[in-house]
Amino acid sequence: MATKHEQIIRYIDGLPIGEKISVRQIAKELSVSEGTAYRAIKDAENKGYVSTIERVGTIRIERKKKENIEKLTFAEIVNIIDGQVLGGKDGLHKTLTKFVIGAMKIDAMMRYTGAGNLLIVGNRTEVHEHALRAGAAVLITGGFDTSDHVKRLADEMELPILSTSYDTFTVATMINRAIYDQLIKKEIILVEDILTSAENSAWMTQTETVSDWYKKKKATDHSRFPVLDGNQKVIGIVTAKDVIGQNENFTIEKVMTKNPLTVGRKTSVASVAHMMIWEGIEVLPVVNEQQKFEGLISRQDVLKALQMIQRQPQVGETIDDTITKQLSVVQQQGNQTFTFEVSPQMTNQLGTISYGVFTTMMTEAVTQLFRQQKKGELAIENMTIYFLKPAQMDSKLTIQPRILEAGRKFGKVDVEVYNGNVLIGKAMMMCRLIEK
């Protein structure tokens, strides 16, 4: 039976897009305490079902699919720009397709403005009306208001008209930054993107026996199963190692490994990869906030996802991507070395290379070296930097990684960094190798 929390989430999910909700209303509707209702609404906000806006309230919004994550709702725009809603509150759940800066004559402006757009403009009331009639929402910069007539029109057409104290350039930068951040999130593969759902996963109960394990193994061709209690909570995991040599009449509860490692749906696949490597795990159960079973993720699933990430074009560039782009491979006396130019954004307040950039640069050089020598992927387990001398901006550095040991699961690498002929950094890295 679903908990009260789950019942509220389902109720919110079933509400029409644009519906306004409140703690008191949910508590009364579902006969729960206001504290329970408040926690569930906050959880729904985290899941992307609702958006809470100051002076407006909480509204049901369309939950964005991953492939459409770079689009923002007008409700999210209000929060980004710290704005207020002057009219058209019923349209806050709608998604904007693009934003247009209104810095031209009306006729020219309307050629670029259409349905689903957000027109960013100052206190030009006539423009506000034209934009609404063209199906676009309006964002007024500089803290200006608009006429009551325009506000009524926004309410009628269910198109938000917003106001912010920021100037046009600042607002455009803030919205662009938010879209860019969403693009980066789009590239990050999460557990929920690749998990095998609970409906399609094999699992066991604590009251089943070792004999049942053998039957399930034969039926599914799997040997690792999460163990669930009567409330579908994960309480253990049972593998071949646990059952071999055990009495076939023993219950699974007697032989299972208790309190296994689990992950949530929003955990990144990269994080799961590290966990699996370090702990030597082949399968991880996926659970929700109440520790209820939601599916499984295997080492094979993770490796496929990591390979897919490498083949994807970079749309939203992270700091690591920027650093990686600066690395160039060169051959030097039969050894593979890398060159790196210190650009201004990679320096600290003193104008020398930042510590974070320095470590990322060395880590990426080692990773590329292992890839090129077909030794597979790796996770850095330990890095010891013996010394580091400053390198000024525009310096051209040479990174020389040298593999000292490379077993099946572990690698040991010595890295030297030169600025011209001067040694400016030296590090030792211990790595765990990801088997292909």
TrEMBL record:
InterPro entries: CBS_dom (IPR000644), CBS_dom_sf (IPR046342), Diverse_CBS-Domain (IPR051257), DRTGG (IPR010766), HotDog_dom_sf (IPR029069), Ser_kin/Pase_Hpr-like_N_sf (IPR028979), Thioestr_dom (IPR006683), WH-like_DNA-bd_sf (IPR036388). Residues 195-254, 256-314 form the CBS domain. It comes from the Bacteria. The keyword Transcription does not apply. Signal peptide: none annotated. Keywords: CBS domain. The keyword Plastid does not apply. SUPFAM superfamilies: CBS-domain pair, HprK N-terminal domain-like, Thioesterase/thiol ester dehydrase-isomerase, Winged helix' DNA-binding domain. PANTHER family: CBS DOMAIN-CONTAINING PROTEIN, CBS DOMAIN-CONTAINING PROTEIN CBSX3, MITOCHONDRIAL. This is DRTGG domain-containing protein.
